[in-house]
Structure formats: C-alpha cells, structure tokens
C-alpha cells in the first residue's frame, strides 16, 4: 500500500479523499458530475421522483433510494395539484411551486402548462408581488444571478459563475418599481424568476437558456433597510454616474459573454431609468422593455380586438389615459404608430387623438416646459384640467385606459360619464396587482349598465349583470412576451424593431374568434396559450426576416411549424 493512502483509521483506503478533504486538492467539485443515484435525485433538471422505471432504477443506482411504487408524470401532477388546492393562502402556493421548481423542473413546467389559468396568478401577478415583498423571509435557495455594486469591475467574472453557457433570454431588474408596489430592492428577484418561468411554460424557451438577474444598487425602502431578513445591500440607491457605469459594464459583459443574439429584457425599472436604458441600448443590443413595449403590444392587441365589437378603426376613436409613466406613454406611442401605419398620416397628427392625465391633471401645451421628455409629445392645446372626471367630460373619449398604479381611480362618476356618450365604452383598468386596479370588473359593468368592453391587468372573475354573464378580458403581458421572445430567438434577430411589436399585437388580435366575442372576450383564453405564442413567434420572426434583422438563415418556409418544433416540452425523458 502506498504511503499516500495510509490512514490513521486502521489502514482503510481513502478512495474518495474524504479524510484528506481539508488538504488543498486540485479538484473542482463541479468539474465532473455523477448522474447516478443520490446525485440524480437531487438534480432538478433530471429528477423524475417515482416516475423512474424499474430498468432506470437499476441502471442508475436508485434501488432503495426510492419507495418501490412507480408513478407516472400524470399521477404526480394530479397529486401536486390536489396538494396545492389545499392551501388557503396564495403565498403558500407560490412557495410550494418554487420548491417544486427547485426539485423537479419538468414536473413544475408540466403543471404550469396544463393548469395555466389556475397557476398563472400564483407564479406571476398578483401573488408574485406579495412574494417579492416577503422575499427575504421566504428566501430558501438562491435563484438567478445577483449582481451588486460590490461586483463593479468584475461583472464578466460573475456572469461566468453561472453554470449555463448558451443563454438566449435574460430578464433583469434593479427592483426599483416592482409592479405597483414600488422599490423592493434586491427582493425584486421574484419578478425575473417568474417572468422566465413563463417564457418557458408559455413560449417554450428552454429553462437552461433563461437567466434571471437582479442588479442591486441599494434601496430607498426604509422598511427593507431596517428589516433584519433583507437579502440586499443596506444602502440608499446609487444614482447618476455610479448607476450608469454599473449598467454599462453589465450590458457590455452580457454581449461579451453571450454574444449579439441574447435577448435582454428590462423589467420593473423606475420610469426615468427605463426610458433612458431602452433608448441607449436599443441601437447596440437586443433589448426589450416589457413595461413599455410588452404592455403596449398586448393593450394594442386588445384594442384591435375591441374594435371588432365597438366598430370603427383605431383612427376613429379618441383615447384618454390615466397615468403617463412607462406603460401609459408606451401604449400611447404604439397606438399612434399603428394608426400612422394604416392611415399614412404623420405620427404627430395621430398623437392628437390621444390624451394623457398624470398626477397633476391633463397634459397640455401650457405645461410643456415642466414635463419629463417622454410626456412632451402628448402635450396638446387645451385648457388645463385638474381631474380625470373633468378630462373625460371635456374630451369625451371613446377609450379610457388606466395605467396609474392607483386603485379605485375610475370612480362611478367617471364610468357613468363614459357610458353617457358611448354606446359601448372601452374601459381598460390595467394597474397591478388587483388591489391597484383602477376599478373592478363588477364596477365597470354595473356602472355602465353592462355596456362596457372591459379588460384589466390582473384577473377578475366573470360578472353577471342583468342575466348576462360578462367575461372580463385580462390584458396580461404573458400573452405577448413569451411568443415575442420565442420569435426573436428562432429568427436569431439582432435588434428589436417597433414593427415587430406591431406584428405581435396583430397576431394576438387575430386569435380572437367570433365565439370569443360572443362571450365578451377581447383576448383569447389562456388555455391554448402555447399555440398563440407559436403564431405570435412566427409573425415576429417573419417581420425580423423582412427587416433584415434575422441572422438564422436560410429562413424556414413554415415559421409556425418551425416555432412549434423549437418549443420545449416538459414530458419526462427516458434514461438509458
């Protein structure tokens, strides 16, 4: 026996190096992997639980590590859905779903795809908002990549710590404006994690190709700074040069590490940064801001569908927004763009049909000097008005859209005024979560005598009014961004062009059938979302090819079929 193998424990050979584990060894524990037995059960990507067959249990040293019963993926799904439905508190369902994702990735996605209408509100809005508020307390295992001010100068090295090399979609937040809940700092990580699980479930992007990132530059939320369980930097937010230098280093490192064709989605940045970052990087990187562009695209799709119920073209209507932030101005811009495209009218003339109200009242010309740059195109000639009700009565819009983040702002008077001069007033209350919605579905229908064409950002149950059941539309970005992202990925697009957003809106509006309109729906049901996503992806990819922005050549003949063939399916694989 060689002297190197002698041990104090009675000469038993130390084959695994456990006695010498404290010595410096030139072995990286993750440089090799043992896909057998115990390790396999703890790898969420390959674990199947009781679904391992007898042959697999023998081949992979699983005998005795599992109870003897065999269970199909369908049976496992049935059990977990049964368990989830026992929870009274939505946050507990969220935690259970996150635990499942950490334990058995394919089962998590199978569950989400097969029960999308029931589970979407759990893994995304509204429950994800509460999860972010309490993220420090419910934090178990890190998900995604955390980049903080401490990493300045080393961001590329941090990206290289992520185990996956071929990343296709990054969702990044700095946690400053999470949903309508404000600054949640580092705890905003729940949003990129949730968004990317939808990219996979609804858009079919492979889980291993998705990377959630939170950039922690501090927080101005005093509650969090004083919370002993807070997981982020305990300092006020960095701003100005310090902030922009970190973001510049991050964007450069992303391109350096993952190449031109990785889609970086900015998520829940505060208004001032969101517009600047999008304007700055859209020329040099493949970037997308869901709050500005995704929201706009899905709302435009809702309006295009609503026109089939209400009549007229986009240009025939007058629009009034409550809220002039990222969502409001983003939607307004896209409506004007689509209007201009179909009428050959200059975009400035189209903008005159669209009015915005912010916290100080109607945005008018006399306020132009004091307005932020993204509000200035919407300052039209009109006397100053302080309240939404005055604006509704004066402008007499046919479409009222709420993106204010403030609940209960579409009052009875406002909705009644809309109903007084419109046979079918179009009312979109888009703020999330549900508690921040400008009005509820029930209020919209009852105050308009059941005549409103209504959609909201968070889900509402169907409402019965005068013996008729109204099904409120949910203007959920999850209709657009997964399919949009898939379209960008399959075409190898190198930039995002506004026409690709218009293509996504038109593709979604085309999915609404007469049968849906009969129920009052202006968005298709979520149940066949993967088919919808594939069609959106095809339209987006087609537009990328048409604009010369696609790098995957030659162009596939049938883009819908190609999109479907690229989509991840979460059924279990058989192992040799």
TrEMBL record:
Chain positions recorded as a divalent metal cation binding sites: 267-268, 291
GO biological process: malate metabolic process
This protein's pathway: Photosynthesis; C4 acid pathway
Domain of life: Eukaryota
UniProt entry tagged with the keyword ATP-binding: no
An example Gene Ontology molecular-function term: metal ion binding
Record key words, sorted: Metal-binding, NADP, Oxidoreductase
Cofactor: how and how many bound: Divalent metal cations. Prefers magnesium or manganese.
Family matches, as SMART domains: malic (SM01274), Malic_M (SM00919)
Active-site residues from the entry: 124 (proton donor), 195 (proton acceptor)
Oxidoreductase keyword on record: yes
Record-linked PANTHER family: MALIC ENZYME-RELATED, NADP-DEPENDENT MALIC ENZYME 3
Assembly and oligomerization: Homotetramer.
Protein name, as recorded: Malic enzyme
């Amino acid at each position: 026996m060689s002297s190197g193998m002698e041990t104090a424990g009675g000469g038993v050979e130390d084959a695994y190096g456990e006695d010498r584990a404290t010595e410096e060894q030139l072995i990286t524990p993750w440089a090799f992997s043992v896909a057998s037995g115990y390790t396999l059960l703890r790898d969420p990507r390959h674990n199947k639980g009781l679904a391992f067959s007898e042959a697999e249990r023998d081949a992979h040293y699983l005998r005795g590590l599992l109870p003897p019963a065999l269970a199909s993926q369908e049976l496992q799904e049935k059990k977990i859905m049964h368990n989830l439905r026992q929870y009274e508190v939505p946050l507990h369902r969220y935690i259970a779903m996150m635990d499942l994702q950490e334990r058995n990735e394919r089962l998590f996605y199978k569950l989400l795809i097969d029960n999308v209408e029931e589970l979407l509100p759990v893994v995304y809005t509204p429950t994800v908002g509460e999860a972010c508020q309490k993220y420090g307390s419910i934090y178990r295992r890190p998900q995604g990549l955390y980049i903080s001010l401490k990493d300045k100068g080393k961001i590329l090295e941090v990206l290289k710590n992520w185990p996956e090399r071929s990343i296709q979609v990054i969702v990044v937040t700095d946690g400053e404006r999470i949903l309508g809940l404000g600054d949640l700092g580092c705890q905003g990580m729940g949003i990129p994690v949730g968004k990317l699980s939808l990219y996979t479930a609804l858009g079919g992007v492979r889980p291993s190709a998705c990377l959630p990132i939170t950039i922690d530059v501090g927080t101005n939320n005093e509650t969090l700074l004083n919370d002993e369980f807070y997981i982020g930097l305990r300092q006020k937010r960095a701003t100005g040069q310090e902030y922009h230098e970190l973001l510049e280093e991050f964007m450069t490192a992303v391109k350096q590490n993952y190449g031109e064709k990785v889609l970086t989605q900015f998520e829940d940045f505060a208004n001032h940064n969101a517009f600047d970052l999008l304007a700055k990087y859209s020329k040099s990187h493949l970037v997308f801001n869901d709050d500005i562009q995704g929201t706009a695209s899905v709302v435009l799709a809702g309006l295009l569908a609503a026109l089939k119920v209400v009549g007229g073209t986009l240009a025939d209507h007058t629009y009034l927004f409550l809220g002039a932030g990222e969502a409001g101005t983003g939607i307004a811009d896209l409506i004007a763009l689509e209007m201009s495209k179909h009428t050959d009218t200059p975009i400035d003339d189209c903008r005159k049909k669209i009015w915005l109200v912010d916290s100080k009242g109607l945005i008018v010309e006399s306020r132009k000097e004091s307005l932020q740059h993204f509000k200035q195109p919407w300052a039209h000639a009109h006397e100053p008005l302080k309240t939404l009700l005055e604006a509704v009565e004066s402008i007499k819009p046919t479409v009222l859209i709420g993106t204010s983040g403030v609940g209960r702002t579409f009052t009875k008077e406002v909705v009644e005024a809309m109903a007084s001069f419109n046979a079918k007033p179009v009312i979109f209350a888009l703020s999330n979560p549900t508690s921040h919605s400008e009005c509820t579905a029930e209020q919209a229908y009852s105050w308009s005598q059941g005549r409103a064409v209504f959609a909201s950002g968070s889900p509402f149950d169907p409402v019965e009014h005068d013996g008729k059941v109204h099904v409120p539309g949910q203007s959920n970005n999850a209709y657009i961004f997964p399919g949009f992202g898939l379209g960008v990925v399959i075409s190898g697009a190198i930039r995002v062009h506004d026409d690709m957003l218009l293509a996504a809106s038109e593709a979604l509006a085309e999915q609404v059938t007469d049968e849906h309109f009969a129920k009052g729906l202006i968005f298709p049901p979520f149940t066949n979302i993967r088919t919808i996503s594939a069609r959106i992806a095809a339209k987006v990819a087609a537009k990328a090819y048409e604009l010369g922005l696609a790098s995957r050549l030659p162009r596939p003949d049938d883009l819908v079929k190609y999109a479907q063939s690229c989509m991840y399916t979460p059924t279990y694989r058989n192992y040799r």
